[in-house]
């Protein structure tokens, strides 16, 4: 996993989230890999996540707080090594923040309910999707609730 410290992110105001816990509480709840990604903005290695190629219909939620984030109807195969979505289930379910870590400027995607790092969103890459956006999300930051038959 690669780590980008929270201090590398260009955040002027630290928002208050609906779900707020101490580092100790997050560490007790999350596995070490989940904590590294969700709370320390690490990135799982490409092509290793459980949802990279999943085609199961359902709802993807934040693994830290359970908030709905994405639906399988917006998931697509981008062949980038991480699950990709062209839109969140609702715009206010995610928070977009300028990220200046790793020597570049990107847009970080966080859970709007608990502030957990999910991944990044990229624009204008030419994917044949309605938004031409790729929400590149770490599998370890998600939980999939399959659609009931």
Automatic annotation (TrEMBL):
UniProt keyword annotations, A-Z: Metal-binding, Oxidoreductase, Zinc
Cellular component, GO annotation: cytoplasm
Keyword Cell membrane: no
EC number(s) stated in the UniProt entry for this protein: 1.8.4.12
InterPro entries assigned: Met_Sox_Rdtase_MsrB (IPR028427), Met_Sox_Rdtase_MsrB_dom (IPR002579), Mss4-like_sf (IPR011057)
GO molecular function: metal ion binding; peptide-methionine (R)-S-oxide reductase activity
Catalytic activity from the UniProt record: L-methionyl-[protein] + [thioredoxin]-disulfide + H2O = L-methionyl-(R)-S-oxide-[protein] + [thioredoxin]-dithiol
Record keyword Oxidoreductase present: yes
Feature: compositional bias, Basic and acidic residues: 1-12
GO terms of biological process kind: protein repair; response to oxidative stress
Domain MsrB: 23-147
Cofactor(s) the protein requires to work: Zn(2+)
Region (Disordered) location: 1-25
PANTHER family, per database record: METHIONINE SULFOXIDE REDUCTASE, METHIONINE-R-SULFOXIDE REDUCTASE B1
Protein known as: peptide-methionine (R)-S-oxide reductase
Organism: Flexivirga caeni
